[in-house]
Amino acid sequence: MGISRSRGAGKQDDSRSARVGPCVVPDEPWSTAELAEALSPLLVGTRGLLRPRDCTVLDVRPREHDVLVRFRWMSYPHVLGRGLPPRSQYTEDGGSLEPRYWASDALTWFDEQLCTGLLVTASRRERPGFIELVDRPGPAADRRFCTTSTEPDDEDVWSAVDLFEQDGFDTRPVRAIRADGSLIAWVRAHLDSRTGSPWVGHAAVTRTGATTARLEFCEVAGDVPGTVVVDLCRTAAHIASWHGAQRVVTSLGQPELSILGFVQRDDHRELDTAFLGEDHEAVGALIRGSRAWKPSGRVRRAALLARLTHRVVGR
Fold first, then answer.
1. How far apart are CA 301 and CA 31, in angstroms?
2. Tens-digit pLDDT profile for residues 210-223
3. Is 157 domain-assigned?
4. What is the CATH number of the domain that holds 237?
5. What is the pTM of this model?
6. At which of 107, 134, 161 does a domain end?
């Protein structure tokens, strides 16, 4: 966004407390207690930062180096937390905004983070009474591909599954799951190209009990790296957790599932939806190890066909 709220830079005097508009000098920031006090009325008890059923903020707490926002997300079984830095993410001069201006920027940044995948890609740390979302030390996803999820009632997508089938995938299994009423989400992956084509894989997750979901299948094109499996299965598991699943089970055998934290049980694999067991180093290594991958002739032909026919993913 890059919009600075530090108006009228002007000249600074020699006083450490000199303020220019809403900005204070960089070496005398406002306390996190003051920032938390300004942010709390904007967040606590509110719903619908994204959609009405998505987010409920529980409290805003000052910490030594940041302001902690604790919240619930949809029907996710754990309380989550995110630390907000005391410096605005939208100023360019490094100064500290007055609390009311900082709170406005912090609200926007928090919303932006939730909108752009933080819940799926963040590293997680177990804290007393909540799970904190923190920035990963390395990459979380293969940026050459994008994932998109579809819920059972999204008629626009379901009426156009033939476009997905044109890239070589059989949609009969997922359509049958949708018909029996157990589907939570259908997740698809596509090449991050100008047209968003071609599709390169898909997965489905279903409800099997009040707190249990099942990863039914994960199918990918034979010429794409295992990072696509990671992105598809991770996204599917997280969406299931937002609908109340405390665990995700599967009989699938893809080795990438171990990286995500799936553990072997007697006759199945199981993932705890606290998501504390993902091996971030292994994910990063898998992404780095696949950097040499280039789209095959099949993928390039499909992308060219999409450009010629102006086909756009999701339509």
1. 57
2. 999 999 999 999 88
3. yes
4. 3.40.630.30
5. 0.84
6. 134
